[in-house]
Write a structure and sequence with these properties.
It is built from four helices and three strands; from the N terminus they run ββααβαα. The protein is α+β, with helices and mostly antiparallel strands. The protein has one domain. It has a three-stranded antiparallel β-sheet with strand order 1-2-3. A hairpin with a 7-residue loop joins strand 1 and strand 2. Helix 1 runs antiparallel to helix 2, helix 1 packs across helix 3 and helix 1 packs across helix 4. The protein is globular, with a radius of gyration of 16 Å. The model has no long low-confidence stretch (mean pLDDT 88).
Length: 146
C-alpha cells in the first residue's frame, strides 16, 4: 500500500483572530513539489491576465503568497508540516483542481507531468475532505459566537 502524500493532522477551530480555523497537514516532499509547481504555474497564468478590479488584485496576492509558502518546502525536498487557514486551503484546493483540469488530457504528457497530475489526483480528495471539515468547524464557530 502506498503512503499518502498528504495527511490532515488537525482541523482546529478557535485559533488566531486572523485565522479562526486552521488545518495542519503532513506533506510529503513529492507532494510539496507538486503543489508548488502547480501553484506557480497557475500564478504565472493569472499574472498574464489583466486584473480588472481590487478583488482580483487581492486574489492574485493571496495566490502568490500561497505559492511562496510552498517554495521552501519544495526546495528542501523533505517531508513537512504545514498549517493553512481555511481560505488558504480552499485556494490551494481550487488552484490544484484548475491546474489538473487544464493540463490533464489526451495529448502527449511528459512523464514528470503525468506523475504530478497523478499525485494531485491523490491529494485532491484529501483536501476536499479537509475543506468540508474546515467548513463545518467554521459553521460551528459561527453558531457558538451568535
Amino acid at each position: 500500500m502506498q503512503e499518502s502524500p498528504l495527511q490532515i493532522l488537525e482541523v482546529r477551530a478557535g485559533g488566531a483572530d486572523d485565522a479562526p480555523v486552521t488545518i495542519t497537514a503532513a506533506v510529503s516532499a513529492k507532494a510539496s513539489e507538486a503543489i508548488f509547481v502547480a501553484l506557480s504555474e497557475q500564478r504565472a497564468r493569472r499574472r498574464s491576465e489583466r486584473a480588472v478590479n481590487a478583488e482580483e488584485v487581492l486574489a492574485l496576492r493571496e495566490h502568490v503568497a500561497l505559492a511562496e509558502r510552498f517554495q521552501p518546502l519544495a526546495s528542501a525536498g523533505a517531508h513537512a508540516i504545514v498549517r493553512l487557514s481555511a481560505p488558504e486551503l480552499r485556494t490551494c484546493l481550487l488552484e490544484l483542481t484548475d491546474y489538473a483540469n487544464r493540463v490533464d488530457g489526451e495529448h502527449y504528457q511528459p512523464a514528470e507531468l503525468r506523475e504530478r497530475v497523478a499525485l494531485i489526483a491523490r491529494i485532491s480528495p484529501i483536501l476536499w475532505d479537509a475543506n468540508a471539515a474546515a467548513a463545518a468547524a467554521e459553521d460551528e464557530l459561527a453558531h457558538a459566537t451568535h
